[in-house]
Amino acid sequence: MNRKILIDLVGVLLIGLIVLVGYKLSPLLLPKADLTVEPDPACSLQEGPCSVSLPDGGMLRFSVGTRPIPMVKPFELRVEAAGIRNVSVDFAGVDMDMGYNRPQLAERSPGVFTGEATLPVCVTGRMTWQATLLLETSTARVAIPFRFVTG
Q1: How many angstroms separate the first and last alpha carbons of the chain?
Q2: What is the pLDDT of residues 76-92, one digit of tens each?
Q3: Residues 6+ away with beta carbon under 8 Å from 7
Q4: 3-state percent helix, strand, coil for the chain, nearest multiple of 5
Q5: How far apart are CA 59 and CA 57, in angstroms?
């Protein structure tokens, strides 16, 4: 009888530990933004850079170095905007989970952030992606979702 209670207690503690670890790691998988800014839906990263007006009155320009955006080959990401401290780009499949893919961009010069990304191949060939820019300014965390199609 005591052994069964001990096994049940260990099980409950393990479940609690899993919940605690999940809670602590959730910001990595599901980043929180104070504000979401919608870009111009007519702008396509496959055709050229996209510009977005930021809430503080500034302007942001986002571009990819290779067009069309390739699958399974590295390509450059570039974000230009003043007043930003940190930038990452979260790539997510719109219709299919393609795993965690969030490269961090490095500031190369004041207001210019660059980095490299690689998209996994989709077995269906054609894939709709959402590249969400995750920005940190001195006052807020901002998310800017861009959609594009590959394949």
Answers
A1: 61
A2: 999 999 989 899 999 99
A3: none
A4: 20, 40, 40
A5: 7
